[in-house]
Design a protein that fits this description.
Blueprint: H1 7-32, H2 47-65, H3 74-77, H4 82-104, H5 108-114, H6 118-147, H7 154-175, H8 185-202, H9 211-234, H10 238-260, H11 266-275
Length: 285
């Protein structure tokens, strides 16, 4: 009897392996190869395996995601089971706490000093913490709606997406003054993937979701956030570390639900095909 191919397990193995290996390599790079100004020391080489790892991850995910069936509606991919939704609420609480700390401890001062547009940065920074707290509340509300088996509003993940966009703009203004891309490239990739992942997740509440591309962005976000964790741990603040870890885990739970949801059954696909109107020519007189 021919065994069926289940790409989900290979996707999980690739994601977890890339996340752990990437984080270890980045940690050693920050300790031994990255100079205080962000540039690489002479004889550095760890950026090469990080680039290879990123290429393997992207190529591997694209190839392994192709056999997955598409799912478009929220009830097809998001579970009503208490466990994943409790995790979403827990990690949303971490996101809220991280933004409260960011608001209270004055972490915005170094960003304002580094940016080339201090007035714009000041306006966005005032918006960022309350928007992050609101986003956390929206994610928690999304989880509650799933448990109650009620359709979540698309606005819930859209607010989260807007928060990630604002956070990316604020952080990029500071990164833009950095003389070396090696200092921030994986933080930039993580921010972009998280933003696109959250945007795609909102589509399922519209009934217009795209499973493959959403899994791709969420799992890439998981890996690049893991690679960025050593930056937050060694060079960042407590709020930066908490926000990065919370967003990472939110992307992980959402991506896992999309990845492990039931595949479309053959009879389901056949029924869908039969329900579509067929084009028949009218008989000629």
């Amino acid at each position: 009897m021919k065994k069926s191919f289940h790409p989900q397990c290979y996707i999980l193995i690739l994601t977890v392996a890339a996340a752990i290996i990437g984080a270890v390599i980045r940690f050693r790079q920050l300790q031994f190869e990255l100079l205080p100004d962000g540039s690489l020391a002479e004889g550095s080489y760890l950026h090469i395996p990080l680039i290879i790892l990123s290429v393997v991850l992207i190529g591997g995910l694209i190839g392994l995601l192709l056999p997955l069936s598409e799912r478009k509606s929220w009830e097809q991919v998001f579970s009503s089971h208490p466990l994943p939704n409790a995790l979403l609420i827990l990690f949303a609480a971490g996101l809220a706490l991280g933004n409260v700390l960011f608001w209270l401890n004055g972490s915005q001062t170094p960003i304002l000093q580094m940016t080339q547009s201090p007035k714009l940065s000041a306006a966005l920074l005032k918006l960022l913490p309350p928007l992050g707290i609101l986003s956390a509340g929206c994610i928690a509300a999304f989880a509650v709606m799933c448990v109650l088996k009620k359709k979540p509003s698309p606005a819930l993940y859209m607010v989260f997406s807007v928060y990630l966009i604002v956070r990316l703009i604020v952080r990029f203004q500071a990164w833009n003054t950095d003389p070396s891309i090696h200092d921030y490239c994986f933080k930039l990739l993580a921010s972009i993937c998280c933003m696109l992942g959250a945007f795609q997740l909102a589509g399922f509440s519209f009934g217009k979701g795209h499973r493959r591309i959403t899994v791709f962005w969420t799992l890439c976000a998981v890996v690049f956030c893991c690679i960025s964790l050593p930056d937050a741990y060694l060079n960042g603040t407590a709020d930066d570390l908490l926000i990065t870890a919370s967003v990472l885990l939110l992307m992980a739970v959402s991506g896992a639900q999309l990845l492990l949801c039931k595949e479309a059954l053959p009879e389901e696909a056949a029924g869908k095909a039969e329900s579509e109107p067929s084009e028949e020519k009218m008989p000629e007189d």
